[in-house]
Description:
The structure holds 2 protein chains of 2 kinds.
Chain A: H1 2-42, E1 53-58, H2 64-77, E2 107-110, H3 112-115, E3 133-136, H4 144-148, E4 154-156, E5 162-164, H5 174-178, E6 185-186, E7 210-211, H6 217-220, H7 227-231, E8 236-240, H8 247-254, E9 257-258, E10 270-273
Parallel strand pairs in A: 1-10
Antiparallel strand pairs in A: 1-8, 2-3, 4-5, 6-7, 9-10
Chain B: H1 10-36, H2 51-65, H3 67-76, H4 85-106, H5 115-118, H6 125-152, H7 161-184, H8 197-223, H9 230-261, H10 264-274, H11 284-302, H12 304-307, H13 312-337, H14 352-384
Helix pairs in contact in B: 1-14, 2-4, 2-7, 2-8, 2-13, 3-7, 4-6, 4-14, 6-7, 7-8, 8-9, 8-13, 9-11, 10-13, 11-13
Amino acid sequence: MMKKSRRSFLKVAGIAAIGLGAAPAMTFAASDSHGAAQAVKGKNQEALSAHRWGMVIDTSKLNEEVAKNITEACHRNHNVPDFNHEVDEEKYPNTRPTNPKQEIKWIWEEHFNYAFPDMEDEFLVEKFKHLGFPVTCNHCKNAPCVQACPTQATFKREDGIVLMDFHRCIGCRFCMAACPYGARSFNFRDPRPFIAETVPEFPTRSKGVVEKCNLCAERLAKGQMPHCVEASEGAIVVGDLEDPESEVRVLLNENYSIRRKQSLGTEPSVYYVV
Amino acid sequence: MLEIAIKGSRNYWLWIVLLLAVMGAGAITYIDQFTNGLMTTGMSRDVSWGFYIANFTFLVGVAAGGVMVVIPYYLHDYEKFHRITILGEFLAVAALVMCLLFIIVDLGQPTRMLNVLLYPSPKSMLFYDMLVLNGYLFLNIIIGWKVLEAERNQVEPPMWTKPLIYLSIPFAIGIHTVTAYLYCGLPGRGYWLTAVLAPRFLASAFAAGPAFLIILCYIIRKFTKFDPGWDAMQTLAKIVCWAIIANLFFFVCECFVVFYSGIPSHMAHLQYLLFGYHGYHALVPWMWSGFILMTLGAIFLIIPKLRNNKTLLPITCAMIFIGAWIDKGLGMISGGFVPSPLHHVTEYAPTGKEIMITLAVYATGFLVLTILYKLATTIKEEVRG
């Protein structure tokens, strides 16, 4: 009796082992066909791709006008609410007054001492004392926000872009506490009354979710450069950091650049040529 | 056993009605927050966690503090804690109910909260916090209920409760450790980025929890015929004493490291809390009051004559409880966000609506606590009689 049951156990175990051995081969076969199907369905022919997307900001080409245009282009095209926008009373009756501290920002200007607080220097070079540095999500290689998110609503794509699923976000704001760059904003209220003109190419958000710069993933997928690049008059270049021939790499080879809070080890993908 | 909770004196019902009224007012306020979003709060882009998360953090400590009666009784057979062990466990249950409610009212999209289970993310500390908090809650409900039921029937509690009780001890340490890990693992927040955060959380928890338990013992003695025992309360007072001293010591260690090393990103937060920063000092009087309360409380508990004073002890305990609440509730969370990672200063103060919802969560916790304590004390009276 004892022997028999042991034999049958061994038999089952053996079959299971074969199964386990076969499993990787099967998934390989499955993923192969699956992958091909996906490539046909998902990848646009003219889509821009990279091993790791990065951004180089040439500070010598920045001025007040350019910085303003950058923010404007990004915010308008991503339906980022502007709390100073006059609300359409008919469409949104009884809208409560706004709190400027609860504003939403994707890319904006900061003075050197705020953009690079660990490099604060009383003898800072004169040209930087009044210059506005565009700051945004750094799409960090080791993104603390991705690690912190309890639902994977914030995730890192294989090409390095840190993206958000606005429909999965539960609004716990752990990512905001985790981000060392203040790059994230929370929708404390419904943003729609404060959007001057809704751009249909990009979704509006609901209250209660976090948002931030997405490096215009929706444009890269269509073969277009991000809005900020187009508005920057050459000050911002976006490209593949892992391709030595790319424009961003050439810029980084030829110029000295800094990144925000490098000592934290987050490995930002946004470089500032100074 | 629950039938005991619906038989009570006039005062009992008045208290219940009061709690329900506060809960009702809070629920109405919450409907506004739910419909209009967290714009109703004082939170902002820079201070993205406020009163809710602060009270959550503090109450995780109160819940963990319950283990200070469980360890002596179950691990060291300290008989004098026999009568109050159940009080510690039920206090943990009520505190955890409040913790979970505070998390829910803090969410921007509460209807999506089960996404945490649908997409489990083992890299997120919030995932583990959810596991240990719920685990500790269920352990305490099961243990408390079974032990009390056995006492009522005058039999030994079932054997299987023993391993659960032993398991609840690491869980108690775990809930507060993981809660500290939520904060101290974030690279850009200098105030929290310290290994002493979890030990400090535990120390203040082991002071605040038992201090509150002593106050509850006084209330029980006044309103029921059940006597938790003066000796047990004295031992608790000694636990509070050393725990609060440990908390103050850890804080001094933190201050030394921060101010002696002088690293600005770490120093700025403590400067803001203790002396004000760039002209902003909303929390300075609070923080000093908190530390004075805790220090005086520690002194009152060290000196035997003062500790044995039956009138002074509840006041001392209240001082320590409030002091710990200021330190951990008010200062710990705001302090971590001010100044912001870009070194901007945005101050935070809760709005009236935020305070109302907070009060309602506390009222819910007190309702749970009242019902559970009503069961415990009535059964203990019955058994003795």
